[in-house]
Amino acid sequence: MTKTPVRIAALYSLFVVISVIINIGSQIVTISIYDGVYAIEISILVGTITGLPLRYLLEKRYIFDFTTRNLTHDGKLFLFYSSMSIITTLVFWATEYAFHLIFDSAILRYIGGILGLTFGFYMKYLLDKRYVFVQSDFGEKI
Length: 142
Prior knowledge:
Layout: H1 5-33, H2 39-63, H3 71-103, H4 106-132
Helix pairs in contact: 1-2, 2-3, 3-4
């Protein structure tokens, strides 16, 4: 099937929705289990970690049609993909935490998280397209 920009956008949007559900769902579960010191910060971290591997697999396969050579290559690519997530994750965290501090409401904190994730995912797509799922300077894939 041909990868048109509309198809890529639709698939990527679907993966974003899945990731947001996993992320926010993980946060809700974390808060329900632990409501102590740094509960918000811990829940945001847990939410971030739970969605990352699935997003990597879905994007590698269905967005970028990228095939790794072996398990070592796949591991290195996942680490690089994850490292590119740092900036976008900070955008997400800052947005969600700002909503938490400003509004002091769980619902509005999650809305801030959804906004931060959405913008972060858009930034992440641009970074992955340009730097992660491409040929390296040495003529081989990372």
